[in-house]
Amino acid sequence: MSDFLRRIRLPLLFAALLLGTLALMLGDRGKAGDDRHWLSRALLELAAPVQKAVTRPVHFVGDTWRRYVALVDLESENEALRAELARLEEENLQYREALVTSGQLRRIAEMRRDFEVPLLPAEVVGQDASPWFRSLLLDRGQAADVRSGMPVMVDQGLVGLVSATSLHAARTMMILDRRSAVDAMIQRSRARGLVRGLGNGELEFEFMVRGDDVASGDEVITSGIGGVYPKGLRIGTISEVKADRSELLHTARVQPSVDFGRLEQVFVMLHRGPTMDLLFGGGDGDLAEPAPAKVADGR
Amino acid sequence: MRPVLALLVLGWLFALLQGAAAHLLPSWTVPDLVLLLTLAVALVLGPGAGLLVASGVGLGADMVSGTLLGQLACLRLLVLVFTRLVAGQLDLRRGLPLVVFAAALVWIDGLGQAGLSWLFLGAFPLQPGELLTLGLRTLVTAPFAPLVLGIARSVRERFDESDARREMRLDTRRAVLR
């Protein structure tokens, strides 16, 4: 009997471990965000500080390179940016004038108030090394009121959505991830569609053909519909429209406005949309409401 | 037990290093050291210890990745068993066969990840560009296989050696051979 047990010990161990991992996957799939498996939360909690310690020296080397070595074209770039700034200021002035005359300024002020919620800065301590997934590890978690379903952004635009949290860490699914879909619209023509991550660092804008006006160079922003992201966050610029008139759904390539390869600090919007609140449960009901406009001093 | 723990810690360190490097560089330029360590563990440890290290290292990789918890652990277990089966037929301790096998393993593991994601998360269409990325990742990862095998072997020997040294201590005041 003991000989038999000794012989099947290894197959038994393999089967037990394999079944264990399958059970973990099934359990993790069924749960969303903050309700994930305790082991998942514990590992996430453990990963952030260790990853931070490993990432810091790597950052230091990268920063040194960027600040002191790779500054060859800085002067010409600076001049070009100054010219661009002057042009944009002029353009902005004209838009303001047009908005005031058409009475839309009030509505824009309301829109700004809608998503002027506290923004929590968080450090990016790690990134997904898997070829198929695009996620970030942040050093802020539930202790800083970060919850699954909260949008993450930088000054350039939308980064993604918090997908899992532990006490002091959070994982963010980037909009580049193939599982990500953002309800978006063209800023100029208001044509609506979905921005999907292709998983290879590119974005695609899917829109219905109803005479919708989508052209290269158009800015793509979040539409606010869907209750996940607030309206008006910048996603990217249309780089190529794939016009196939025989199909109902058209697609266009979107150049992301965020440089995802250089994310060091991001901002978590401490506000969860109604859809996310339904999805992740109402345990944090106070967070579902737009938070008081603590940062709206500028208005 | 100590080689198991040492290799486990090494695997977790590799996972963290990969995450840190992928933060600065394109992900395809970062070699999959955790996968290579699993390969090495299959060659330098016994089957039982190898299974424990492979699943532990896989869980470590899961924690810094956006995959489902257990997904990489499951794949690492399968990789370990597959490697041991192949090692029974081919001599994987030599450089070229090892690199070629590691290259094949990167593809198998990559497609396995896609397959499991498809199974558990639904549609998972692969773009041609992604397969190209996987190809580039293979080219970056496979040449590191002999190095990782060397590291794993020296870790095992180092932690085995301390046990052996205690047992093999000779009393030099006496003649060893008569």
Which helices and strands, and how do they pair?
The complex is a heterodimer of chains A (299) and B (178).
Chain A: H1 2-30, H2 38-69, H3 74-102, H4 105-115, E1 119-127, E2 135-138, E3 151-154, E4 157-165, E5 170-174, E6 181-186, E7 192-197, E8 203-208, E9 219-222, E10 234-242, E11 249-256, E12 265-269, H5 274-280, H6 285-288
Antiparallel strand pairs in A: 1-2, 1-12, 2-5, 3-4, 3-12, 4-5, 6-7, 6-9, 7-8, 8-11, 9-10, 10-11
Chain B: H1 2-24, H2 33-44, H3 47-63, H4 71-87, H5 95-121, H6 128-141, H7 145-167
Helix pairs in contact in B: 1-2, 1-3, 1-7, 2-3, 2-4, 2-7, 3-4, 4-5, 5-6
Characterization of the model:
The complex is a heterodimer of chains A (299) and B (178). With 299 residues, chain A is α+β, with helices and mostly antiparallel strands. Chain A has a single domain, classed as Rod shape-determining protein MreC, domain 2 (Thrombin, subunit H), CATH 2.40.10.350. Chain A is built from six helices and twelve strands. Chain A has helices spanning 2-30, 38-69, 74-102, 105-115, 274-280, 285-288; strands at residues 119-127, 135-138, 151-154, 157-165, 170-174, 181-186, 192-197, 203-208, 219-222, 234-242, 249-256, 265-269. Mean pLDDT of chain A is 76; it is low at 283-299. Chain B has helices at 2-24, 33-44, 47-63, 71-87, 95-121, 128-141, 145-167. Chain B is 75% helix and 0% strand. Chain B is an all-alpha fold. Chains A and B meet through helix 1, helix 2 and strand 1 of A and helix 1, helix 3, helix 4, helix 5 and helix 6 of B.
